[in-house]
Specification:
146 residues, mainly alpha, 6 helices
Length: 146
């Protein structure tokens, strides 16, 4: 498979990386440091490194498309989480009550958090690539010297 062509389905390493990020988000307890903080940060870091490694060698145009897709996915996964955790109207509260519960809330938080973190990682890669810090392109120093 050519690494420069967009894949129609995610590969197993990408799925495992996203799962690691979601697991890290799920086991994190928040901003107060506990024994679960270090494993959570380790899982999130390894998962984001896997996602970044998968898309890091792509062309800038493909990174731009990937960034758009990740943000669309992040927005889509955040909507149910937002409805469950912060309903502000009666219809949103009804939807939130249907999905209420610690397991569902944790799962929605993990998926939404993982998708947002992966979207940020891909966006950073795209930002670097668009400014010339990208494999296969001349370095910024070489461009200045030319």
């Amino acid at each position: 498979m050519d690494r420069y062509l967009p894949a129609s389905t995610p590969s197993l390493p990408v799925v495992l990386s996203i799962t690691a990020v979601a697991t890290g988000v799920a086991i994190n307890t928040g901003f107060e440091p506990t024994l679960r903080t270090i494993p959570a940060l380790l899982l999130v870091s390894v998962g984001l490194a896997g996602v970044a490694n998968h898309v890091g060698d792509r062309r800038v145009e493909h990174l731009q498309q990937t960034t758009h897709r990740w943000w669309l996915f992040a927005f889509t996964t955040f909507l149910p989480y937002g409805l469950v955790t912060a309903p502000s109207s009666e219809s949103a509260a009804a939807v939130g009550d249907a999905f209420s519960g610690p397991v569902v809330g944790t799962a929605l938080e993990a998926v939404a958090g993982a998708s947002i973190l992966c979207a940020v990682a891909v966006t950073v890669l795209y930002g670097f690539a668009s400014y010339g810090i990208h494999p296969g392109r001349p370095s910024p120093e070489d461009r200045v010297l030319d």
